[in-house]
Design a protein that fits this description.
By secondary structure, the chain is of the alpha/beta class. Strands 1, 2, 3, 4, 5, 6, 7 and 8 form an eight-stranded parallel sheet that branches.
Length: 290
Amino acid sequence: MVRYSSLPFRHLVKLYKCDLMFTHMMLSDCFSKAQSARDADFQHCKTDRPLIAQFAASDPEYFAAAARLISPYVDGVDLNCGCPQRWAIKEGIGACMCTNPKLISRIVSRCRQVNPDLPVSVKIRILDTIEDTVALAQAIEQAGAAFISVHGRTIKERNVIPHFDYVQAIKNNVKIPVIHNGGVYSPDDLEPALQKTGADGVMCAQGLLNNPALFAGYTETPLQCVQDWVNIAITYGTTFITFKHHLVFMLENVLPKHEKKIFNNLSTIAAVLDYLDNNFDIRYQNKLPT
């Protein structure tokens, strides 16, 4: 989740039974070149584990260098070959790389050479045919990847039912763990996704933004989760934009339409806190939830 899976949000989802967390997608070339980029992109703490650092990369050396720099603070690194955003495609990173399995393999192999004790995973989107998709996954496995995450949609598909059969085909043809991604928006979607794909786990992005307590079995964001976010975000010094954006997602199914308009017009942290206090008896408690 570009710019959303920051330290405060990772702290929140870990409270609600998220087993493995990923950073947002960082650019390996910028990260490896500049301390300023590292400071801006990556914040961590001792309890921020287990954690996978996710990078976009089209150059094996930059990816390996970024992995080396971040390795003391994470449990693995992930090559993002799943991002479909236009800017990423224009830069030759993200989902467009799925049509170039040789390049992906070189990136994974080089990282394993430079960082032999650091697990490397890859996130992909499916290709047009099952055969090509399976071949891509097998190439990633042969390059030394520890596991693979599969978004069951093509680079062009948005908001359609994922192709569970493609993920199942990958699972049936590789030996490394396979994580399913896509189409999980509530706890009721978890078990069917696992049954249809045979995957070893489920990755969730948009569903967790709307409901950070999804993995704990909540069908919508509980108010206690909103309270936890207030305490976490303010304690960490989260920017107003990020603080409010997460609340907009969390309250999507809680606020009626006319209240959403009021909330969306709030322009300061103080105004947001007043609104939450007046409407939900939620206020900053000056402590981090554990």
